[in-house]
Automatic annotation (TrEMBL):
Annotated gene: leuC
Organism whose genome encodes this protein: Paenibacillus tianmuensis
Transcription found in the keyword field: no
Official protein name in the record: 3-isopropylmalate dehydratase large subunit
Family note: Belongs to the aconitase/IPM isomerase family. LeuC type 1 subfamily.
Domain Aconitase/3-isopropylmalate dehydratase large subunit alpha/beta/alpha intervals: 7-456
Subunit (UniProt): Heterodimer of LeuC and LeuD.
Length: 472
């Protein structure tokens, strides 16, 4: 019978299944960070167990790491989480990319970069944005701390089988429109729960022409659509990205792996439980106006009027969000001024993101009303960016150039907004208080974030480039 890619990966990993009950599946890789692992290791200690497969378990620290003066962690909870992870990895024989490692970084940047993420693998982490790894055609999803413990102890996991959802992206992204705009556009159109209970497979021409890093940006935010995971079928782009990376098979073994990975693609005639379409051709740069990733719109558009929403729930939610965000219905998004810009996170903290940001920043200055920081997703991203001179472009333009970590994506380290501050952020969540108590987050692409930093307000990066060219 014809199978979807999800079904192939699932069937390859089921150890035991009974009708009406969750299956037991084998996990090929577990990634670990300092926030969701302490109780899991403690559980192992209490029950006298070992980590069953330390060779399939890799850890790094990211959420609590200061991006300035990283070894000087003053917050006692952050310090405890970081120290506990170091001790746990040492005690249980787990490889840790520690604060002094070039591979330290946001867990979902580090894994693919090292070649730990392969097509066809099952990958888990105590973190919702594990969906990022699905860009390689891996079945990757976030799990809770008790499940982290279960996988550490057994390398298996109980899982109910999700349904399949094809998100078909037709056409081609226009210049100035990025993978971030694409996923924001999909979520704005279909909502933050349209994929609940499903694993998404992104298909279509627009997806095929994305780079690996752009695909990761798309899959990263699958969770913001409610999905269990997001998948993109591996192709030559995937194989070229993986070839030669540290944890990827080398030489003849790589060619054999590629031959196997090619078999994962959804079969002709396989049926998804649901299919939705999205037109990339007509998409323009996006910016969120509210407090959920689905509350987004075209940058050329206006803050919506709650009265225009069709249901009472939507009206109430929009009203509340607009109030929290300190906005007025009907205001042009391009009239909204900002105080802060954050470029980074597991959504947009990779080298291509920094290149795209630097390309807009080059030769310009951050508005005097704006504080802007650039935070590489990992130590390796930082070094690569410095090799290319991107750090100099940012610093000359008035951005702060920081060390790797989750940073201002969420308020668990010194990078936080002050109450009332408004931020153009390349991260993935704009919930109330996400970047600091009473902080206001607008999600955008790296290029849009830089253009906003320079203008001091949101601006359509497509015109902005045009305008700048004329002025030059
Ligand atoms: C802290 C962690 C558990 C959390 C997650 O699961 O995603 C964080 O990474 C986030 O982005 O909100
Ligand atoms: S960068 Fe943000 S979304 Fe990604 S793991 Fe860190 S906190 Fe979560």
């Amino acid at each position: 019978m014809a199978k979807t890619m999800f079904e192939k990966i699932w069937d390859n990993h089921v150890i035991h299944s009974e009708l009406g009950k969750p299956s037991i599946i084998y996990i090929d890789l577990q990634l670990v960070h300092e926030v969701t692992s302490p109780q899991a290791f403690e559980g192992l200690r209490i029950s006298g167990r070992k980590v069953r497969r330390p060779d399939l378990t890799f850890a790094t620290m990211d959420h609590n790491v200061p991006t300035k003066d990283r070894f000087n962690i003053t917050d006692p909870i952050s310090k405890q989480q970081i120290d506990t992870l170091s001790k746990n990895c040492a005690d249980f024989g787990v490889t840790l990319f520690d604060l002094d490692s070039i591979d330290q970084g946001v867990v979902h940047v580090m894994g693919p970069e090292l070649g730990l993420t392969h097509p066809g693998k099952t990958i888990v982490c105590g973190d919702s944005h594990t969906s990022t790894h699905g860009a390689f055609g891996a079945l990757a999803f976030g799990i809770g701390t008790s499940e982290v413990e279960h996988v550490l102890a057994t390398q298996c996991l109980q899982q109910a089988k999700p349904k399949t959802l094809e998100v078909r992206i037709n056409g081609k992204l226009k210049p100035g429109v990025t993978a971030k705009d694409l996923i924001l556009g999909v979520i704005a159109k279909y909502g933050t729960d349209f994929a609940t209970g499903y694993v998404i497979e992104y298909t279509g021409d627009a997806i095929r022409s994305l780079s690996m890093e752009e695909r990761m940006t798309v899959c990263n935010m699958s969770i913001e659509a409610g999905a269990r995971a997001g998948l993109i079928a591996p192709d030559q782009t995937t194989f070229d990205y993986l070839r030669g990376r540290e944890y990827v098979p080398q030489g003849e073994a790589f060619e054999q792996a590629v031959a196997a990975w090619k078999q994962l693609t959804t079969d002709e005639g396989a049926v998804y439980d649901r299919v939705v379409d999205f037109d990339a051709d007509s998409l323009i740069p996006q910016v969120t106006w509210g407090t959920s990733p689905g509350m987004g719109t075209d940058v050329t558009s206006r803050v919506p009027n709650p009265a225009d929403f069709s249901t009472e729930n939507e009206r109430k939610a929009a009203e509340k969000a607009i109030e929290y965000m300190g906005l007025t219905p009907g205001t042009l998004m391009t009239d909204v001024t900002i105080d802060y810009v954050f470029i980074g996170s597991c959504t947009n903290g990779r080298i291509e993101d920094l290149r795209a940001a630097a390309a807009v920043a080059q030769g310009y200055k951050v508005s005097p009303n704006v504080t802007a920081i650039v935070v590489p997703g990992s130590g390796r991203v930082k070094i690569q960016a410095e090799k290319e001179g991107l750090d100099k472009i940012f610093i000359e333009a008035g951005f702060e150039w920081r060390d790797a970590g989750c940073s201002m994506c969420l308020a668990m380290n010194p990078d936080v907004l002050k109450p009332g501050q408004r931020c153009a952020s390349t991260s993935n969540r704009n919930f109330e208080g996400r970047q600091g108590r009473d902080g206001r987050t607008h999600l955008v692409s790296p290029a849009m974030a830089v253009a906003a930093a320079i203008e001091g307000r949101f601006t359509d990066v497509r015109d902005w480039k045009f305008k700048v060219k004329q002025e030059a």
